[in-house]
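User: Hey, my collaborator sent me this sequence without any context and asked if I could get a structure. I don't really work with proteins. Can you help?
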Amino acid sequence: MSDDQNLRYARQLILPEVGPVGQARLRAARILIVGLGGLGAPAALYLAAAGVGTLGLMDGDTVSISNLQRQIIYTTGDVGQSKTDTAAQRLHAANPHIHLQLHSEMATQENAPDVFSQYDIILDGTDNFATHYLINDAATRIGKPLVWGNVERFAGQIGVMLPGQNACYRCLYPAPPPSGVAPACDEIGVLGPVPGIIGTMQAMEVLKIILKVGKPLTDYILRLNSLSMEFKKIKTARDPDCAACRNQRNITPAKGSIMSATLPEITPDELRAELASARPPFLLDVRNDDEFAASRIEGAYLIPLPQLEQRLAEIPAGEIVVYCRSGGRSTKALNLLKSNGFTHVRNLTGGIMAMQTTGDL
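Assistant: No problem. I've predicted the 3D structure and written it out in structure-token form, which is a compact way to encode the shape of the chain:
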């Protein structure tokens, strides 16, 4: 190592569990962070600072002003910019010795196996059930260790999956909850330090796996209640009938995921063609005001989901396409519209993130 690197990593090099051999392991490691939000941002900063040699950054989203309360890698001036590009600038500024690989796209069933196979460990920093299951199933199928976490309000949890050795996410939660049972973070809120705590713990679990020190969270889920500042370990066990571990064909698709065929949906390519036709559909955006201001599909009409039921009169009869960030809120909007007599409603597969990934914005 150079003199700069010896000084940079001095506080961890003096740890007997790290030393030059451990630092060499860190330098050789290849870690993929999927989702650069409240969990992925602090995890990326700590992994970069520790000297992980290659960090993959996977996210198809742009920075919105509502992100800044918890996604500490971004600043006000970054609003509207690509998360991967912006995060890469910050991480290089923090540690110019690391190598970054950018995947400015959302994780899908098609791209996950190829992208994941380039890395040693996957860190799931995403914020919705559809993507949690997608990441778990892809990592399990190709045999990649996975460190996952999720948060809501004042609570969070974290777990580690080593393929073939312990319970995967689907072993613990065989199928996603019904739509509306487990609201997303943008509907019920989260206090900023909570994802910071869980994301930092995810980085710690990754470092433990790389360095082969301590015991990763393979036999337990660790849950945090930040209001009482209590941690609880919950014992886990593999499910012999787990579809992800045993047979991919038996997996129950998550609502809003690309594996689901239960909703009337339209793909980005299909929407682009219809918007260019003589009779384009009414395009309804159900995200928040700040998200709409940062990026939108041309011609879209904004009614945030919490206001939708009170503003149904603003929606014309006929063909309607509803979208949000990635599909969760638009699923609820679709069901609400159908229950109020709107019969020709479709959900944009993957939301605006999918449109950004395919270059339609």
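In plain terms: Residues 206 and 355 are 32 Å apart (CA to CA). You can pass these tokens on to your collaborator as they are.
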